[in-house]
Amino acid sequence: MLPELIKLIDVQEIDKVIMEVTQGLESLPEELKAGEAALEGVKAIHAARLQELADLKAQHRDTELEMAEMEEGIKTSRQRLMEIKSNIEYKAMLKEIAFKEDQRDQRETRILELLDLMETQKGFIAELSQQIEEQEATLAEQRQKVAALVKTLQQELTELEEKRKKLRKGVPAALMKRYEFIRQRRNGSAITPVQEGVCLGCHMNILPQQFIDLQKGVDILQCPHCQRILYWLEEVEEAQEAG
């Protein structure tokens, strides 16, 4: 086999690892985004619950003020009741007092309802606060792990790029340019083995004469179907067994 072809096979193996490492680096931030989105969702619910609690407190305060005003109104009406001489006016005032007392009782009932609602809301808020705290701790831990993994992968990527640079020196520039051109169009696979006359890149038969020429190992050949650069698999396997 041509020495430049052997180098090119090694370059492609490194390129495959580089692609995997690069994809890993790109996917890590996406994993964090899912956790961050989940946390933001819980925070949004927490903020909504806080606003609901604030609204309930405002209603409670307003209702207490209304109830206090009604108590004062009832007290004033009872004082006036003592001054009334007419039986008709007396009955009318009693009716007015009864109405005010009913309105006061309704406000009192509403105050109790609001207190219950506020306690329930506080319970929800406490649970959400705990959930936020736990998710923030988990996310912080994930960020540390991702940062450490990114550092490791970047170091690995630097080492792979250095190895690739050294291997490229053994490949003619024209062949390397052809390799890069094919690799971009074939999802990272520019050089592929041939086994029993079949290109394992596209699984199509190559011409018999082309297979004979490939076994001779004199020229750089390409698959007539997928245009990938070819090498004879058995020759590589024999070399590996011998090595």
Description:
The chain is mainly α and 243 residues long. It has two domains: 10-167, Helix Hairpins; 173-242, no CATH class. It is built from five helices and four strands; from the N terminus they run αααβββαβα. A four-stranded mixed sheet has the order 3-2-1-4. Strand 1 and strand 2 form a beta hairpin. Helix 1 (3-81) runs antiparallel to helix 2 (87-168). The longest helix is centred in the middle third of the chain and has 82 residues, at 87-168. It is rod-shaped and about 130 Å long. The mean pLDDT is 92.
Mean pLDDT across the residues is 92
- The best one-word shape is rod-shaped
The helix count comes to: 5
Number of domains: 2
Helix content: over 70%
Rg: 41 Å
How is the main sheet built?
4 strands, mixed
Corresponding CATH architecture of the largest domain: Orthogonal Bundle
Low-confidence stretches: none
Distance between the termini: 15 Å
How do the SSEs run, as a string of H and E?
Answer: HHHEEEHEH
Keywords:
243 residues; mainly alpha; Helix Hairpins; 2 domains; four-stranded mixed beta sheet; 5 helices; rod-shaped
Quick recap of the structure?
The chain is mainly alpha-helical and 243 residues long.
Helix and strand topology:
Layout: H1 3-81, H2 87-168, H3 173-185, E1 191-195, E2 198-199, E3 204-205, H4 208-216, E4 229-232, H5 233-242
Parallel strand pairs: 1-4
Antiparallel strand pairs: 1-2, 2-3
